[in-house]
Amino acid sequence: MNCSRAVSILVDDLIPSILESDDHWWPRDFQRLALVSQAWVFPVRKRLYACPSLRSYRACRLLARTFTENLDLLSHVRRLELRPISDGTTMLNEQEMQSLRYILTLKGLRSITLGGDLAVAAQRFLSVMYDTRNVTELHIDGYLILGGRSPILSPVIPSLEWDDVMAFRFPNLRTLTLSNVLLAIIPPMMDRPSGLTHLTLNNVDIDLGVLPDICHGSWATLRQLEVIGGNAVEQDDGIRAMLDVCANIETFHYEAPDAFSHLPVFDEEPPSCPSLRKLCISGLDATSRTLQAIAQCCPKLEDLAVLGRVHRIPLEEWASYIASDALPFLRRLIVPAGTNHPPFTFWSPAEHEGLLEVCDARGIALVDLTSKSNPSCELSRFP
After folding, report:
1. For burial by CB atoms within 10 Å, which of 178, 312, 330, 362 has the most?
2. Is 307 helix (H, G, I), strand (E, B) or coil?
């Protein structure tokens, strides 16, 4: 009797679907898959080189060499993350600088992240790029230096100078994210390109200029604003001005490191935010007056999060606020697990149950934060 077993054959047309079924492939996974058969090579290369992420000048040199020897790979590159850090003992040689320049001048890039040494006076490296019309996402991140990852002993400050030249260099920019940098905003001398929709300032210190000027020309198109930490959260006038001139903002995330800082943005003469649907304020001294101001200036609010341990809103005020239907479109509410009287006091399960019943009666989902280690990110998960 012939008991030979049928050999399973993988249809080559399924290979792209297999690779797209998971976003957590590692480079070594791609390397192994490329060795399976010739049919895997092109789909693997397409995914592997779509977003090179480089953390050293040696990696930059090797990638530049790979591209010069395999020009067909250039068509796969769409995103780029460059975070090289020198060892602090030797100067960069000419070959490494040429490799870096070669990578920065690649064509067709849609997303750029500069970190490490490249976040120091980042405008120098952005100026090297010349094919930037397709770039829609730009991220400058100084974390590796501010976080103590740089071996250089002399003080080095990640920084960016944003002026008319930078704005016109990226005319189709949609998302601008600045993290852990010192920012100088040069006032505009002319109308800048419009189209920016998302602006994030994470631990950014504004050294020069006013906040609205960074998105000058895009006041009507800006939809999402995040200001987290840094001295930017202390510039209440700048943030108020942003909310005034950017009337179409739909999402606003305003976070300080649990500082006893008042929140004049939403107290006296609050700005008009007719389009705002998602609001998260964290680590700020919010009071019942803050809630009243939010209801006044954000009539279409659907998702509200008030987080941190310094707010002074007792649970009974939350319950009466929700029951009053001050926010008729509210569908999701995130509140802390207690009130700062002071000191900060946790609500009892029975008290929390009372607020839950009020929210249920209004069709509002109340998020329970009593067991969450990092609740400030909950707003980003809203549908």
Report:
1. 178
2. strand
Q: Which helix (H) or strand (E) holds 315?
A: helix 315-323
For 249-266, write each residue's pLDDT tens digit: 999 998 877 555 555 677
| Residue 245 CB neighbours (<10 A) | 15
Residue-wise pLDDT tens digits, 137-187: 999 999 876 555 555 544 578 999 999 999 999 999 999 999 999 999 999
- Residues with Cβ within 8 Å of 58's Cβ and at least 6 positions away in sequence, in order, are 96
Q: What is the CA radius of gyration of the chain?
A: 25
Distance CA 335, CA 343 (A): 17
DSSP string, 81-111: EE-----SSSPPPHHHHHHHHHHHT-SS--E
| Distance separating alpha carbons of residues 378 and 78, to the nearest angstrom | 30
Structure confidence at residue 123 (pLDDT): 94
Other C-beta atoms within 10 Å of 377: how many?
14
What would the pLDDT profile of 80-112 be if each residue is shown by its tens digit? 999 998 876 666 778 888 999 999 999 989 999
Q: Which among 140-149, 284-293, 326-335 has the top mean pLDDT?
A: 326-335
Other CB atoms within 10 A of residue 332 CB: 20
Name the residue type at position 80: L
Whether the CA torsion 142, 143, 144, 149 is positive or negative: it is: positive
What integer pLDDT is reported at residue 177 of this predicted model?
96
Pick from 325, 295, 314, 307: nearest CA to 354: 314
Q: Closest by alpha carbon to 333, among 354, 359, 311?
A: 359
Average pLDDT over residues 203-229: 91
Pairwise CA distance, residues 266 & 264, whole Å:
5
Q: What distance in Å separates the CA atoms of residue 103 and residue 10, rounded to the nearest whole number?
A: 37
Cα(3)–Cα(118) distance, integer angstroms: 64
Listed in sequence order, the residues at least 6 apart from 13 whose beta carbon sits closer than 8 Å to its beta carbon are none
Query: Of 122, 125, 187, 186, nearest to 159 (Cα)?
Result: 122
d(CA 78, CA 111): 7
- Average pLDDT score over the chain: 82
